[in-house]
Specification:
Layout lengths: L3 E5 L7 H13 L4 E5 L2 H10 L6 E2 L2 E2 L3 H25 L4 E5 L6 E5 L8 E6 L1 H9 L3 E5 L1 E2 L8 E2 L2 H12 L3 E5 L6 E2 L2 E2 L2 E3 H9 L5 H16 L4 E4 L11 E4 L7
């Protein structure tokens, strides 16, 4: 089954108009799709209200037990519901679940003293494939079962989407956010090879959350995904939109 995995960025999820436009774009370009969503802005907002730390390191949220509980509450609750409702309003038969449900995701603690942050080690692909064959669009909140049944591990949404895309051997992973792609000197690049990534990071063209995106893109390709693009909503309608991440250096025209 040729599928696509679509990751929706957290910053834009706070805008109902953007989420509605995304849902309509997905409905206009139908294909078996797994949606993975973030929700970092909402997690940060509730964390501040609860006087919990909002700290990120290399694009990943440092998650104390309290912060991990907020992630579970927000991503598995209102954010997931909002995405599902927007998709269903556009005519897509969306079904919300988290990485904990049905043992969808398995993870181990990510090294680096990040707290309750996980690195995915396995994806229960047969569950997603059964839902896709039944005509559903799974909408996944990125978290995985915690150790010994404790608080679920917080998994970066880009990492979760990459792991799912690789495990499903998806035709394409689309990492959709509020940027048109990777820009160098103000110009969005049509393609960037993995061999160029470290240099672009060192030169400051790729920073913060985009670093996580490009590393996740490489992981998806290594895991079995056919292609990866990073960009905006126009990627759903235009196969040339966004920045394609290549495993090898692009050939000169």
């Amino acid at each position: 089954m040729l599928t696509r995995v679509v990751k929706l960025g957290g910053n834009e999820l706070d805008r109902p108009s953007w989420l509605e436009a995304c849902a309509l774009a997905l409905a206009t370009a139908p294909a078996p799709t797994v949606v993975v969503h973030g929700g970092g802005q909402a997690v940060s907002a509730l964390s501040r209200r609860l006087e919990l730390p909002v700290v990120k390191r290399d694009g990943r949220r440092i998650s104390t037990k309290g912060v991990a509980e907020v992630v579970e509450m927000v991503l598995g609750g209102p954010i997931n519901r909002q995405v599902v409702e927007a998709l269903r309003a556009a005519g897509i038969d969306a079904l919300g679940l988290s990485g904990v449900d049905g043992g969808l995701l398995t993870a181990e603690p990510l090294p680096g003293d990040l707290g309750h942050v996980g690195r995915i080690t396995a994806v229960r692909t047969e569950l997603l494939e059964q839902l896709l064959r039944a005509g559903f669009t799974p909408v996944v909140a990125p978290m995985a079962p915690g150790l010994d049944g404790g608080v679920p591990l917080n998994v970066n949404a880009d990492d979760a989407a990459a792991a799912i895309a690789g495990a499903l051997h998806a035709a394409e992973l689309l990492q959709i956010s509020d940027v048109p792609g990777i820009a160098i000197d103000g110009a969005t690049q049509p393609a960037v090879s993995w061999s160029e990534i470290d240099g672009l990071i060192d030169r400051g063209f790729i920073t913060d959350g985009m670093v996580v995106k490009v590393r996740a893109a490489s992981a998806a390709l290594s895991g079995g995904a056919g292609a990866v693009r990073i960009g905006g909503l126009d990627m759903l309608a235009d196969p040339a939109a966004g920045t394609r991440i290549l495993q090898a250096s692009p050939q000169p025209a």
